[in-house]
Design a protein that fits this description.
Blueprint: H1 10-23, E1 37-41, H2 53-71, E2 75-79, E3 81-82, H3 86-99, H4 104-133, E4 144-145, H5 149-164
Parallel strand pairs: 1-2, 3-4
Helix pairs in contact: 3-4
Length: 180
Amino acid sequence: MRELEKNYDPQAMEPEIYQKWLEGDYFHAHVDPEKRPFSVMMPPPNVTGQLHMGHALDNTLQDSICRFKRMQGYEVLWQPGTDHAAIATEVKVIKKLKEEGKDKHELGREGFLKEAWAWKEEYEGRILKQMHKMGASADWKRLRFTMDEGCSAAVKKVFIDLYNKGYIYRGSRIINWCPV
């Protein structure tokens, strides 16, 4: 039997406990007709860097609600994901390329997209590690990225449907970001 340490050392204990939770599938939602469903879609953080205190607060509140609902007997799906953050990520990738002495236009479309996807992999990985470190009880088997094929196809379909109904049209408007 192990003697308890005088001071709690979270780095020594929490990764092991969280890994057991993941391996035990404790956060994975199953279709269960005996339980009422409860779902939360995690507002997907942008892959522009790393999480900040606002993300920590928001995820903690969502996690608390999801865990409470599980204790009440609900079948809970906390759907995790990340967002491509198009223009914001493009700005970050261009800045990184400049620091490396590269030019977006010299790379061409395919070269730039390769750099953007590499950025996404690096920063999405960092963000997911941070969420795991916080102990987030999301259903990680259902992780989505806003540029996943299924998400992109759904956006295209809805966009076309809305356009065909006349809800989407071209017009001149003031915008609050740099169009460059």
